[in-house]
Amino acid sequence: MAQRILVTGGAGYIGSHTCVALRQAGYEPVIYDNFSNASRQVLKRLAAICGSAPEVIEGDVRDRAAIETALRSHDIRAVIHFAALKSASESIEMPLAYYDNNVHGTVQLLSAMRACNVASLVFSSSAAVYGDAERMPVREDSQRAAQSPYGRTKIICEDLLSDISRAEPGWSIARLRYFNPFGAHESGLIGEDTRGVPPNLGPYLTQVAAGQRVQLSVFGGDYDTRDGTGVRDFIHVVDLAEGHIAALRKLEGDAGLLTVNLGTGTGYTVLEMIAAFAKASGRPVPYVIAPRRKGDIAECYADVSRAREMLDWRARRGLAEMCADAWRWQIRNPEGYASDPHREKAML
Ligand code: NAD
Ligand code: UD1
After folding, report:
1. Would you say the CB of residue 126 lies under 6 angstroms from ligand 2?
2. pTM of the model
3. Considering only Cβ atoms within 10 Å of each terminal Cβ, which end of the chain, N or C, has fewer?
């Protein structure tokens, strides 16, 4: 029987793509999500891609008893822990909610896992832990210096995981530091379902190309980069999802703690992204150069040698594919999962 993997936050952007990758790799995902930032529509879409929808448990990661029930009743072998709040800017306004969801949620999850003897965990960390690193590309042993409460919650969870694995050697834990996910599944059925004004470049760019927003503000044109705009390591969300399968496989063979960057190793500027997206969509992307955004850094891209060596994984999809897939998701779902149900019926 396929090994069952509990996927907290499995209805979200990266989680839903990881559920597809898990099925393709012969695992059985069980989604555990409170739907605070996800739509139940994603389940129908997953069914259309995978043949059947994964089982879903509606619950909160801060509810230890409910997680224990989920782990026991489903004979769970490992957990992939995506469930968290993820906006750096929002975390400055509401730090308590971030510490509660991200840190307290992880403590409750780990306590439940320990009580149920489930000792294999893949944890979603972020390039946000590095802050304004001195040298590029950033290596896993670069100093961590998060610039936001959000980034600090990820550092605290990372430290909690290393303390636990030191104290209790039976744990197998992967701390995966994601760079900037973009794109969508090639089917156009699942993607990033942004609510309100998108804080990140990818969805904003997509909505400008679609004519839903007038223009993109490029935050800062005077950075010390090749064209003056910020540089980031954009990674296709499906590559990122596949990185989790590689990590799970690695954990099967090895107890201990693993920390790995998941990026492409290549940085692109905001202007290069605009040009790539305009080409992929065939639409103009009007933009203005605006003042720098508070807390932003000039550039951030990953050293990916450890991912290659330890996980035998590398990102395979490039910028053009990321943009084309993001565009397909956008035109088929102009309102995300809340798009016209007739249109949805026609797609399925
Ligand atoms: P997302 O918001 O799309 O998914 C998170 C999911 O977790 C949502 O389905 C939400 O409903 C659920 N959730 C939130 N709090 C919960 C709780 N207390 N209990 C149960 N479910 C809860 O976000 P995403 O982009 O898929 O990110 C997934 C993970 O990756 C997060 O931990 C995030 O911090 C991390 N990450 C994301 C990015 C990015 O740019 N998207 C970059 C680096 C790291
Ligand atoms: C942001 C978060 C980071 C988080 C990451 C992934 C901040 C300061 N950092 O990082 O904690 O891990 O998202 O969720 O919020 N840009 C524009 N115009 C826009 C939006 C963005 O020019 O409308 C630029 C930014 O200035 C930056 C680049 O695009 O240079 C990427 O921005 P974004 O997508 O927000 O990601 P990060 O800043 O890397």
Report:
1. yes
2. 0.97
3. N
Please give the tally of structural domains in the chain. Answer: 2
Query: In CATH, what number is assigned to the domain containing residue 96?
Result: 3.40.50.720
Structure tokens at 250: 């690695």
Q: Tell me how many degrees the CA angle 60-84-306 measures, rounded to the nearest 5.
A: 130
For the CA of 223, the closest atom of ligand 2 is 30
Asked whether 194 lines ligand 2 (CB < 6 A), one says: no
pLDDT for residue 130 is more than 70: yes
Question: Residue 5 in 3-state DSSP?
Answer: strand
Distance 201 CA to ligand 2 centre (A): 6
In this structure, is residue 194 part of a structural domain? no
pLDDT tens for 271-323 read: 999 999 999 999 999 999 999 998 899 999 999 999 999 999 999 999 999 99
Residues 108 and 255 in one domain: yes
Backbone angles phi, psi at 209, to 5 degrees: -60, -35
By the 8 A CB rule, do 153 and 100 touch?
Answer: no
Q: Model confidence at 346, in pLDDT bands (50, 70, 90)? A: low
